[in-house]
Structure formats: C-alpha cells, structure tokens
Design brief:
The complex is a heterodimer of chains A (about 160) and B (about 750).
Chain A lengths: L3 E7 L2 E7 L5 H8 L18 E4 L2 E4 L12 E3 L12 H8 L9 H14 L5 H7 L11 H14 L3
Parallel strand pairs in A: 1-5
Antiparallel strand pairs in A: 1-2, 3-4, 3-5
Helix pairs in contact in A: 2-5
Chain B lengths: L23 H5 L15 E7 L5 E7 L1 H5 L3 E5 L12 H10 L4 E2 L5 E7 L2 H9 L2 E6 L6 H5 L25 E9 L2 H6 L3 E9 L11 E6 L5 E5 L4 H12 L6 E5 L15 H11 L3 E4 L2 H7 L6 E9 L5 E11 L7 H8 L9 E8 L14 H19 L3 H8 L18 H10 L1 H4 L6 E10 L4 E9 L5 E5 L7 H13 L6 E5 L16 H28 L6 E4 L2 E4 L10 E2 H6 L1 H4 L3 E9 L5 E11 L6 E11 L6 H20 L30 E6 L21 H13 L5 E2 L3 H13 L1
Parallel strand pairs in B: 1-12, 8-27, 10-11, 14-15, 18-19, 25-26
Antiparallel strand pairs in B: 1-5, 2-4, 2-6, 3-5, 7-15, 8-13, 9-10, 9-12, 13-14, 16-24, 17-18, 17-23, 20-21, 21-22, 24-25
Helix pairs in contact in B: 7-8, 10-11, 11-20, 12-13, 15-16, 19-20
Classes of the chains: A alpha+beta (about 160), B alpha+beta (about 750).
C-alpha cells in the first residue's frame, strides 16, 4: 500500500510527512515526527491524554487520521510555551502541584487552554465539565481545578 | 554503618515548604519521557497474542504463516522462554503469567508474541498465528470458586495452612489466620452483635499510561531495557532470572512513570520484549494496548467477607471476627492474608480473629493496588462498626474513639504499636466543621478509618557535590508523584543549603546499588533516610577538607547552616567555610566530594487515616453524588505538603471510584466485557468535589525527621466511608461494592418490600 503524503502546520511550522492510511494523527505526531508530548492512554478517545487542537477545535489525536491533518493547523503541547516563557497554565500547574505522575498533564493543559480561550472566566463547575474528557488517576482533580482557576485570574490580568 | 535513624526534633528550613518540583517543567512542556516515548536505532514493533478463553488447554500453536510474512523478525511462544526457575514456584508463576505454558488461565493470557518492522506488520502477523485450544470449564466468581463442585483452576493445588493437608485439590490455595484472645468467649460477653457478608468487585489501578518498554538484547549477551516501572532493580532481577542473564549485564532504566499504584510492581510484557529482542537480534518496543491493560494486567482482588463484631452496652467491643475470601487470579498469593492482617488494625481488641482464604479464579493475576487488600477489609469492618454503633445508639466517631488502638496496643496482626495516629485522626474528625454541617433531603454522612503498614526496605543513595557547590542526588526509588522534590528538600535541609542548589535524579540499575521498589509507601520514607545518611557522610568529608584547609584537627570542626565552623580555643578567628568554598577547593584537598548510603530502612511507622464524606442519592435513578469529602491522615512529617495532600486526594478519588462505579464485569463465557475507560468508568473531573485534607504530624520515632509513608492509606477508608454515607442517606445497609445505581435501586426496592 502506498503511503500518503501530508502537508500540515504544527505549532506554526510547515510540516510534510508520509503516513499509512490507518495511522492516526497521534501515531504521526509521536512515531513519525517525534512529538511525544501527546500520550496514548487508551486509543479510543476516552482518556484525553492525546488532546491537541486542530483548526481551533479540541480533539483526541487518537480519533483523527493522520491523513486528515492535510492543510490543517495543529497545536500540541510542544508549542504551548513561547520559548522559555511558560504559558500561564503551565506555570499555574507547577505552582499548584497539579500533577503527580504527569502523563495526563499535556492533555489537561491543552484542554484547559481551549476552555480559557472560549471562556476566560469559568466557574468551578464549568471547569469540571470542560475537563471531564481528560482522565487523571493521581490527583483527584482538586489541584488541577485550582490551577486552572488561578491561571484564569492571571490571564485576565488579576 | 553508623547511621542513627532515631527521630530528633528540630526546626526545619526546607522540609515542610512547597517548592516547584525539579521534573516539573519537562512535564508541562511535553518533554518528559515515559515508557512509550523512547526509541532505539533499528527498533522493531512488538505485539502480543492473547487467549480469548477463560480456561483452555493449548493443544498447538502454529506460527509458520506468521514467520513467513515479510517484515516479521521474530515470533515467540512459551518455548522461547524456557523454564529456568529451578523449583521456585513464585518465579514460575510469573513466567507462566508472562506467556502461557500449556494452558491459558484467563481471558487475555498471553500465548504468543511477534516483533516486526512496524505495528501494521506486527498486527497482521498476530492474525496469522493459529492456536488450537481445547476449552476447559472455568470459574471467575470468588464465591463460586470456593463452592463444592466448582471447576478447578489447578488440579494440583491443595489448601496450605491446614493441618493435616487436605486430600482433595481446591481453589483455595492458602488459609492464614491472625488474632489473639478467645472470640467465642468475647461474643458471650456482648449485648449487641452485627453479622453480615460484604462483597467487593474487582477493580483496576487505572494508571493512564499503559505498560511500555524497549528491550535490546545484544550480541555479547548483555541487554538494556527502558521501562515504566515502580522498581527497575526488581524488574532487572526478575527478568535476569527468567531469561538467564547475569544481573550485572542487564541495565534497566526507569522512564518517567505514568501512574502505577502497585500495578507496575509486577513484570508483564518485559520478559517477553527481551525474548523477542534476543530472537530478532534487534531492539523491540512493546506497548500494551489499553484493552490488554485491563484484560491482562492489574487488577485487585474481588472479595467476599463475613464479619461478626459485638459490643457491650457501654460501647466496648468484646470480640471481632472476619472470614475473608480474596480472588488471586490463577496464582497463589497473599492477598487475603494482607486483608486478614489489616482488617482490625485500627482497634484495641481483647478478642480478635481474622482468617484469610486465597481463592484461585480464571481472571488475570491479582496485582498490588495501593494498600493492597486493606480497602476491602476496611469496607467490611468499618461498615459493621458503623452498624454496631447505630445498634448501641452511640455516635460512630465516639464509638471508634472508645475502641481505637493506641501506643502499647497489641495489634490484631501481632506487633505492639508505638506512637500512632488513629486516635488523633478520630479526634480531629470529631472536631472538624464537616461533622457539624447540615444535611439536606436524600443526603447522608459517613465516616470510616483506615490503616496501612508502610514498608521500609533496601535503599541506596549517592549524593555528589559539584565544584560549584551544587548537589546531585541520585536515588534508586522511582518517583511516582513528586519524590524528587521531597528528597531534594531533605538533602537541602541536612546540608544547610537552598533547595534550588540540589537536583535529584533517579539513577539506572548500573549506576547505583540495589533498591527495593517504590511500593508500600516507602519511596520518600526510605530514600529520605538514605539521603540524610548520604548527606551526613558528605558533611563528614567536608569537615575533613575544612580541617585540612585550616590545618586544625577535624574534631574541632562542626557543620552548621551549610558551613564548616571551627570550634574551640585558638580557632575563634577562623571565618566559617561555606559548602561552596569547600567544594571549589576540592581538587586540591583530596578530589571529589560525595556521600554514599546503603541501608535497610527499618521502622516504617504505621499509618492511619479517618475520612468523612457527604453524599446525595437520587431515589429515582440510584445515582450517588459525592458532595463533600474530608481526609485526615497522619504523615509523621510532611516533607512537601503539596504532594502529601496530593496523595490524600488521589487515594480518596480512587476509593470513590471503587465505591460507586468501578467494576470488572465478566460474562458467562468468562470474558471481560468492559476492558476500556468508556465502560470501566473511573471518576472524571465533574464527578468529584474538592477534596479537603488535614495533615497530622505524629513523628515516626524511627526516622530522623519523623517521616512516615503517606501514599497508600488514603485509599483504605473511602469504600466504607461512602457506604456508610449512602446507607445513612437511603436508610438501608449497602453491603456490595460498587454501589452502582442498579444496586442502590435494588436496595431501595428491598426496603420498600420490608
């Protein structure tokens, strides 16, 4: 079977990559491009560890085919900090100890960034429902929710 | 080794603060490398074929068509993992679990594996392996397995722990008994008695990162492995034993670990990856799909527990008894024994007896899960204690306070307690504002206590001081949740320098001495002890260097606040030498400065917790919402309070999932019906409230800073705390975990009929 040539934009960089038809966007990111920040926790869209943003929309990279990345604009955890300057959510997760093992963290950060871009002033309940597609087994979510609340305050200039 | 581990009260500068963890930036930027994030040149993709049958004889495995597929570099079966266990039945069972030998013992049992040039080819190769099975009768339920006439998981297992040895084989692999006094006498002294059977279903640790490794077997007989594990030294030993490699020739590097909770203390795919690499002559990456993680790794025991507890009118418990049956999967283990040991550990009892039965079933091998076996026993006992308090008419907290163990109590499992935290956590619960908060309609409050032993064990640590005076701390216990931050704090504290000047790393098996794994809540307890010891050894060296620099006797040098200071008459005018100054002079005063430590961390102080929770039950749907949750636990000394709180909150959340949702569901065909996160539903963010924590600090007398392990106890009380809350909310006793909506509706129906 012939591989498919895909031209796409990842974290602002133009990328060309070959992939097999059944390969997911997650496979392409991790195995072909070395962008291993997105994790495969389930492969079925249940855990959110592979969360990325495609054309402004939050998706599980394991549910998108690599070939579907053609012509799209993709944002991953590797592009969240601007050089050495962490995104306020990244800083807040560190300050609040909102991670233990950290394997779900990239997915949470992407999902939280998506939330705050749509809703800069979310209630606790809105945060909890926005992040309900991301599983964390270590923290009980308490410090994650607090970190997002605090980052929202910082980003509003508070 | 002259290391005094006894607790000495002191004022802390670093310990007890909350700095950002050293591995933090890597983890928020996606740079941290977990099990599946590592690759080697020429690496192949591995895949494992698993049995679709709960119990079957493997008559033949034909791999010829798979081997002929272009791109396939190795196909292995049990024949490629010859039995080198030399009569060690524990090791043999690990080998058998990694790759079935003649019989598949559960749905998901590995039967063959392949390595190919890519994942697509590996998947295709699996389809071309033809296994001829003869399906055998199976049993998956813990109570059915002990019933007369149950299919036997093994025909050659006779219950041990019974004298004389039984003549018939049984699914009960072992009986164990703990306790003291005379329970029958105690039952006669009582005014009230509660007697009930409790059941808990099987749950999975649910770590978000599936098992993953890269194995590279070299032509010279050496091998390397990168793996997500809670104990790379233990994995090295087990893999070396199973594959016939010299221990020193297998180098294991632990990746960042994406959750373990006990499930990554056991080898599953690692020996298979090594065998594939050996046969293919190339590195092999093997990652478990999530479905396989559920079907073939983890889970904890399903249990059935009979409890009988009685008390006098004044609230004194006169006797307590538990009969515990724990499923082990197809291999003998000590899960019921741990349940028997922990069941009554919170109480001071004159007459107590607990009997454990290890039950073999055609389910995956039971693995450790956070305070393994204790939550189920606590569910049964703490439910019965609550019911008994109601019978007597006492407040459940006061009833527990009256009967709580204390310093000097002979525990139900044998040892006499030193200073312990059960009483203080109960006092704190009684006084907590949560206890006095108002409850609404369909709401109920519950509380429960929990115990865990905590482990110590073999530990080795290196502390190296750089020329610039900054410190590298190399530890051998895998960091599962912030331990590098805690251990850096301890090194900074002992040396008298700033946290920012210490960098802790987890060393691989070839660069540090042996360490037991991160289990039993031992990581920070034992590695902090070894870190203090290593730091004190380094201070000893620095005092010698300072003495040499000053040309005075070393006996006249003390270490204070990160400086060597000269004491005694005649040296008074010598200005103190900082660690930095001594480090900078090292090349001229004797070379590198380091402190090493090898020790067995004895005296892990036992751990207790009390939890309070409020729930609301929807009488129409049977759905339960946790409204408020409070964890009170003794930490000995909280080294990094953020991560102590995190352990409390995380354990509570896992317990909430266990109590309300999580459950392995097997069909009549013995196959697991819900091997995915959609149908095996762990708590999500919108399911939970904030989880409040209260850290108590009752110093462990056997640790220099008073530290106790904190990781596991928090999962022990929630099952009972929530069951008590739900039972109070609906007015009927719930005795089967998880309390899923159908079970709650059934209980409400029963209540209506009564």
């Amino acid at each position: 079977m012939t591989a498919i040539a895909v031209s796409t934009t990842i974290n602002g960089d133009d990328i060309e990559v070959l992939c097999q038809t059944e390969e997911t966007l997650l496979d392409v990111l991790r195995d072909r491009l070395g962008l291993t920040g997105a994790k495969e926790g389930c492969g079925t869209g249940d855990c959110g560890a592979c969360s990325v943003i495609v054309d402004g929309r939050l998706v599980c990279a394991c549910l998108v085919l690599g070939a579907e990345a053609e012509g799209r604009r993709i944002e991953t955890i590797e592009g969240m900090a601007k050089g050495d300057e962490l995104h306020p959510l990244q800083s807040s997760f560190l300050e609040h100890a909102a991670l233990q093992c950290g394997v779900c963290t990239p997915g949470f950060l992407i999902a939280a960034k998506d939330l705050l871009e749509r809703n800069p002033d979310p209630s606790e309940e809105e945060i909890r429902f926005a992040l309900a597609g991301n599983l964390c087994r270590c923290t009980g979510y308490d410090k994650i929710v607090r970190a997002v609340q605090d980052a929202a305050t910082v980003m509003k200039g508070g | 080794m002259n290391f005094d581990a006894k607790f000495a009260a002191k004022k802390f500068n670093s310990v007890g603060t909350r700095p950002v963890r050293p591995d933090g930036v890597d983890k928020v930027t996606g740079r941290a490398r977990y099990g599946a994030d590592f690759n080697m040149p020429g690496q192949l993709a591995g895949a494992v074929l698993r049995s679709p049958h709960a119990h079957a004889k493997i008559k033949k495995i034909d791999v010829s068509k798979a081997e002929k597929l272009k791109g396939v570099k190795a196909v292995i079966t049990a024949d490629d993992l010859p039995d080198l266990t030399d009569g060690d039945s524990g090791l043999y069972n690990i080998l058998d679990n990694c790759m079935a030998r003649g019989r598949a013992l559960y749905d998901g049992h590995a039967v063959a594996a392949v390595a190919a040039i890519d994942a697509r080819t590996a998947r295709e190769a699996l389809k071309r392996i033809k296994v001829t099975y003869q399906v055998l009768p199976h049993v998956t339920d813990v109570d059915e397995a002990v019933a007369p006439g149950a299919p036997l998981v093994h025909e050659d297992v006779f219950t041990s722990g019974i004298d004389p040895r039984p003549k018939k084989p049984s699914n009960v692999a072992k009986r164990s008994e703990y306790g003291h006094g005379d329970v029958e006498k105690g039952f006669k002294q009582a005014d009230f008695i509660v007697e009930r059977r409790y059941r808990t279903e099987q749950t999975h640790q649910g770590y978000i990162e599936p098992h993953a490794c890269v194995a590279s077997f070299n032509a010279d007989g050496t091998a390397d492995m990168w793996v997500c594990t809670q104990g790379h030294f233990v994995f090295r030993q087990t893999c070396a034993d199973l594959l016939g490699i010299d221990v020193s020739k297998l180098r294991v590097t632990s990746s960042e670990i994406g959750g373990g909770f006990g499930g990554k203390t056991h080898v599953w795919i690692e020996p298979v990856a090594l065998a594939l690499s050996r046969k293919a002559g190339r590195p092999v990456k093997l990652v478990m799909p999530r479905e396989d993680v559920f079907r073939a790794s983890g889970p904890t025991s399903a249990t059935s527990i009979d409890v009988r507890i009685c008390a006098r009118k004044d609230g004194t418990i006169t006797a307590a008894q538990a009969d515990l049956r724990y499923s082990c999967g197809p291999y003998r283990d000590m899960w019921a024994e741990l349940g028997a040991m922990t069941s009554f550990a919170c109480y001071d009892l004159a007459n107590v007896k607990s009997v454990g039965h290890e039950v073999l079933v055609n389910r995956p091998k039971t693995a450790a899960y956070r305070a393994p076996s204790a939550p189920m026993a606590a569910f049964a006992v703490e439910s019965a204690i609550d019911e008994l308090a109601h019978e007597i008419g006492m407040d459940p907290v006061e009833f527990r306070i009256k009967n709580a163990a204390k310093e000097g109590t002979k525990s139900s499992y044998g040892p006499v307690y030193g200073p312990i935290g059960i009483g203080p956590t109960l006092d704190a619960a009684r006084d907590h504002p949560h206890m006095a908060a108002a409850l609404g309609k369909n709401q109920g409050r519950g509380m429960a206590c929990g115990f865990w032993f905590n482990f110590g064990g073999q530990t080795c640590t290196d502390l190296n001081i750089g020329l610039d005076g900054t410190v590298t701390l190399a530890v051998g216990t895998v960091d599962v949740g912030g331990a590098r931050a805690s251990l850096s704090l301890v090194a900074a504290e002992e040396l008298g320098i700033s946290y920012d000047e210490v960098k802790a790393v987890v060393a691989d098996t070839s660069t540090l001495g042996y360490n037991d794994m991160t289990d039993g809540s031992r990581g920070t307890f034992s590695s902090s002890m070894a870190t203090i010891s290593a730091a004190r050894n380094a201070i000893g060296v620095m005092k010698e260097r300072a003495a040499a620099m000053w040309d005075i006797p070393v006996e006249d040098v003390v270490w204070e606040d990160g400086h060597a200071k000269a004491t005694g008459a005649g040296h008074g005018n010598l200005p103190p030498l900082s660690l930095k100054e001594i480090a900078a002079a090292a090349p001229k005063t004797g070379g590198p400065i380091a402190g090493h430590s090898e020790l067995v961390a004895d005296g892990a102080g036992v751990s207790f917790a009390t939890h309070i929770c409020d729930v609301e039950v929807d009488p129409d749907t049977g759905a339960t919402k946790v409204l408020r949750y409070t964890v009170i636990q003794d930490a000995g000394k909280a080294v990094h309070p953020d991560y102590v709180e995190g352990q409390y909150q995380g354990g509570a959340a896992q317990g909430i999932g266990w109590a309300l949702n999580e459950e392995y569901i097997y069909g009549k065909d013995g196959r697991l019906q819900n091997p995915g996160f959609l149908d095996y539903r762990i708590p999500v963010c919108s399911d939970l409230p904030m989880i409040d924590t209260q850290i108590l600090e009752i110093p462990n007398p056997n640790h220099p800073y008073g530290v106790r392990g904190v990781g596991e106890t928090s999962i022990v009380p929630p099952l009972a705390a929530i069951a008590n809350a739900v039972s109070n909310a609906v007015g009927v006793r719930l005795a089967h975990i998880p309390m899923s909506p159908p079970r709650i509706l059934a209980a409400l129906d029963t209540k209506k009929k009564d």
